[in-house]
Design a protein that fits this description.
The complex is a heterodimer of chains A (194) and B (538). In chain A, 40% of the residues lie in helices and 22% in strands. By secondary structure, chain A is α/β, with parallel strands linked by helices. The longest helix of chain A has 19 residues, at 172-190. Chain B folds into three domains: 2-221, Thiamin diphosphate (ThDP)-binding fold, Pyr/PP domains (Rossmann fold), CATH 3.40.50; 226-328, Rossmann fold (3-Layer(aba) Sandwich); 355-531, Thiamin diphosphate (ThDP)-binding fold, Pyr/PP domains (Rossmann fold, 3-Layer(aba) Sandwich). Chain B is built from 19 helices and 19 strands. The longest helix of chain B is centred in the middle third of the chain and has 24 residues, at 198-221. Classes of the chains: A alpha/beta (194), B alpha/beta (538). Chains A and B meet through helix 1, strand 2, helix 2 and helix 3 of A and strand 1, strand 8, helix 10 and helix 13 of B.
Chain lengths: 194, 538
């Protein structure tokens, strides 16, 4: 078992939280993990990414080689495309459809969508709306974890336990909201899963 | 016990478990999380391990040396350019030697993710003639720390512990072991070697040189360096630090070539000699400068037995990655990084509501009157003011350079000259520059954009908090020309007036533009407001 996942988005969108969930699930499962992330100035509204590598064997490089990512998961559609050189020919593109427009030359959303649509294995989720439905738009990152849950080497019970542990100190209400966000993400892509 | 730790956290936990008594540092990407981890560590609290953010790296290093002098194990952490600031202490404590184990952790930033340059700290280690450890993984970073302390005490020398961004900011499983006890307070019977007057220093310097043979023997026998023979002798590979991972990524089962993995310097000469004797060509893989390659390559480049960054086998700049290494090995590799044209750049930017934005809007209103290209600035979030849409500042060289550069430009006749510096950068390296300007009655205006935090690295506490007014006054800025403004839209016009007035004053004037960093919690903001009691000048 070996999964290479790139998580993408804009600084502040909860990329590191997604990575932390995958790391903890890997640790609980007895897998090895390496997870490279971005700290510092780029976190201020810039493009950020995290490389998550999970394996039952040794993991060497902290960086995923190009053309080897099994999944590129993005919390923002344009950011998804920034990491295309990393995508494995059989890999999945999964993204929230809601753009984060903090640059004046943000491209036409339809062009972005048509770029993504060229890949057969893609999932576009309205994570922001689903997160709002769960209680807060900021949980869009957890919706996206739900949207790739079936592609991960973990069962849902474990992912939910990790999410619960992660948000425990913020209280039961926040835990439940994030669990709901996870379920909504899972449900949103269920039609595509055969 | 197994945990998932960031490389920096593995370094910190390794030090805690190696009997650390004190850790000092100044925040700087990619090194910051080491001290942060120790500050938050319940174990560190329980074992009364000191963890302190010093005003700058030199001070941090000297504090660590003081703890070592008293017999205890200490660590000092910084980013690579921080070692420039601490270099005076670094070079000279190699001469004096240490007492309790002392580890200098420096995180280099190949590819300049958050830095002005990609200088390689191994050159400093060699320059100071000290042992260098360069871990290849999070687990090794953890495990090496106990060994580094033992080596430091055995040789009575500081050990340079070099990390890079990709190790410092990557998480992995780390197995930890029980902690060692801390050293007791213990001062040497003869402390004269810590007093580097020439007669003592000459003796110490000779001793340091004499120790080199021993340091080389230790590196030669070190378990962190290993040599594995391959079956194909057309190539041999020297891989230092994390470069070994990129090699293994490309040959997960078996590497066909001879491999020398280097994580403990001085460079183990016998191992290198063996490789020279056995293989036709040597590829050097190292993250950073061509440090090993330059040492062992042929100066005139006629034979090119040694290949790497200097010969073009590896790009001259930027960090390594699995693809670059694959290409250098002649394997199939994707080097193309083309992304769809629709994707535009998304550079970092100042947070919505940030006080620096208001300050720059005020400054920009004045620039047509006072002239362009005369705002000297410094290092922090406010450095983003050099970009669109602000274009408010013109320079950024090193910590604290804004004030002396403004003074020098004013001396040349560029009047008015303005310095924009952050609160923490000011107490890091700005105060002496200000003193120089005051002493020489230079016509400059210094604006301290004070957000009461070391904001860019995650809002660590700033040594400047609540002290700026008194520092400026104490350094001799006339009180009539120390102004406090609040960078908020509602004060825009007043602030523009105050800045204009002070810029026109033909001596040193200083404006504190004060508003807590917007990323801080309300609790931290309230604390900042409690400390910053000086009244705005309205």
């Amino acid at each position: 078992m070996k999964k290479d996942i790139i998580i993408a988005g804009v600084g502040g969108q909860g990329i590191l939280t997604i990575s932390a969930i995958l790391d903890m699930a890997a640790l609980h499962s007895g897998f090895n993990v390496k997870q490279s992330e971005v700290h510092g100035m780029s976190q201020r509204g810039g493009a950020v990414q995290s490389h998550v590598r999970i394996s039952d064997g040794p993991v060497y490089s902290d960086l995923i080689p190009k053309t080897k990512a099994d999944i590129i998961l993005s919390v923002e559609p344009m950011e998804l495309l920034r990491y295309l050189p990393y995508l494995h020919p059989d890999g999945y593109l999964v993204t929230d459809l809601n753009p984060f427009k903090n640059v004046s030359n943000y491209p036409d959303e339809d062009v972005i969508k048509s770029e993504i649509a060229q890949f057969s294995k893609h999932r576009i989720v309205d994570a922001r709306s689903l997160a709002k439905k769960a209680g807060n738009f900021r949980a869009a990152n957890i919706v996206m974890v739900g949207a790739i849950a079936d592609l991960l080497p973990f069962d849902d019970t474990l992912l939910k336990k990790v999410i619960t542990d992660l948000f425990k100190r913020k209280g039961d209400r926040i835990v439940q909201m994030n669990l709901d966000a996870f379920d909504l993400g899972k449900k949103a892509v269920s039609a595509e899963i055969v | 016990m197994q945990k998932i730790l960031l490389g920096n956290e593995a370094i910190a936990q390794g030090a805690i478990d190696a009997g650390l008594s004190g850790a000092y540092g100044y925040p700087g990407t990619p090194s910051t999380e080491i001290i942060e981890y120790i500050i938050k560590s319940p174990e560190a609290k329980q074992n009364i391990i000191k963890a302190h953010w010093a005003p700058n790296e030199k001070v941090a290093m000297e504090e660590a040396l003081g703890m070592s002098y008293a017999g205890k194990r200490s660590m000092v952490t910084m980013k690579h350019v921080g070692l420039n600031v601490a270099a005076d202490a670094f070079i000279n404590m190699a001469i004096s030697g240490i007492n309790g184990g002392l580890i200098v952790v420096v995180a280099d930033d190949p590819s300049q993710h958050s830095s002005q340059n990609e200088q390689d700290s191994r050159f400093y280690g060699k320059f100071a003639m000290l042992p260098i450890f360069e871990p290849s993984s999070q687990q090794e970073a953890y495990d090496m720390m106990a060994d580094a302390f033992a080596l430091s005490e055995k040789t009575q020398l500081p050990v340079l512990f070099r990390s890079v961004t990709r190790l410092s900011h990557s998480r992995a499983n780390v197995k930890t072991r029980p902690s060692l006890h801390q050293n007791n307070l213990h001062i040497l019977d003869d402390t004269k070697r810590f007093a580097l007057i020439p007669s003592f220093a000459k003796k110490q310097y000779r001793q340091l040189i004499e120790k080199q043979k021993y340091l080389a023997e230790l590196a030669e026998a070190s378990k962190w360096n290993w040599y594995k023979e391959g079956t194909d002798q057309s190539l041999g590979i020297i891989a230092s630090g994390i470069a070994i991972n990129y090699l293994l990524e490309n040959f997960p089962d078996k590497i066909p070539y001879d491999v020398l993995k280097v994580s403990h310097y001085p460079l183990p000469k016998e191992h290198v000699r063996k490789m020279f004797d056995r293989v036709d060509k040597i590829l050097v893989l190292e993250d950073g400068y061509p440090f090993i390659e330059e040492m062992i390559g042929d100066y005139l480049g006629r034979e090119q037995k040694v290949i790497g960054r200097l010969t073009g086998a590896i790009p001259r700049t930027g960090e390594l990655n699995p693809n670059i290494v694959a290409y250098a090995l002649g394997l199939e590799s994707q080097l193309d990084e083309t992304i769809p044209e629709v994707v535009v750049a998304r550079p970092p930017q100042l947070c919505p509501g940030c006080g620096h934005i208001d300050l720059y809007e005020e400054l920009n209103e004045l620039i047509p009157q006072i002239g362009e290209k005369r705002v000297f600035s410094d290092i922090g979030c406010y450095s983003l003011g050099v970009l669109e849409p602000y274009n408010s500042i013109d320079t950024l060289i090193d910590m604290g350079a804004s004030i002396p550069m403004a003074k020098g430009a004013a001396d040349a006749g560029l009047k008015p000259a303005i310095a924009v510096i952050g609160d923490s950068t000011f107490t890091h390296s700005g105060m002496t520059g200000l003193l120089s300007a005051v002493w020489d009655k230079s016509p400059i205006t210094v604006i301290i954009s004070d957000n009461s935090a070391v904001a860019m690295t995650g809002a660590q506490p700033s040594a400047a908090m609540g002290r700026l007014y008194d520092i400026a006054k104490g350094l001799g800025v006339e009180e009539a020309h120390i102004k406090v403004i609040i960078p908020l839209k509602k004060y825009h016009d007043k602030n523009v007036e105050i800045i204009k007035e002070e810029v026109n004053y033909p001596g040193v004037s200083l404006i504190i533009a004060q508003r807590p960093c917007v990323t801080m919690s309300n609790e931290k903001k309230d604390l900042a407001r409690k400390f910053n009691t000086f009244e705005p000048s309205y």
